[in-house]
Amino acid sequence: MTTKRVTKQKSQQESLLTLWAMPKKEEVPLILSTKKEINTHLNGPKFPLHMTLAGAFNLNPSEIKKVELGLSKSFSPFKVFFKGYGMKDYFFQAFYVAVELNEELKRVRVKICDILNTENLEFMPHLSLYYGKEAHEKKQSLLKELPNLEGNFVVDTFYLVSFDPTNIEWKILNSIRLEGL
Predict the structure, then answer these.
(1) What pTM, to 2 d.p., does this model score?
(2) Alpha-carbon gap, residue 124 to 97, rounded angstroms
(3) Is 98 within 8 Å of 39 (Cβ atoms)?
């Protein structure tokens, strides 16, 4: 029985919590088809289209409901604007749709970090299309074949997600409807 407890504790330590916004499929069909096209060529791990609003935080299980209520009551639905592509030599930002970090999104981020009691460090909002370590040249040649992307989507729900960075796995734990004033 001791072994099970140790294993469970170790597993909880390896998983981190993140907070996502996920566009509705009908709002971003071109992004979804582009993500599928890119993955056909680059073959990265599968993951849902999302924008990470806060990452790598921990919550005591007894705090989760209180935090979810705080998030729900503190935010009204808001628009996120996107335009164009970006690439980095970083696994989780290898190929993405650029999101505009406007004043509203900055305020959202500050308030989220305050509610989660986490530091508001560097924030580069984006919608990842591919995770991996593919050569820049290969990604750049693929970019020429992709459609121009520009638009917006409405965030009316946050998602509390458990992320296991060792196995690159995600599990959506809860959805949080935005019901603020």
Answers:
(1) 0.87
(2) 11
(3) no
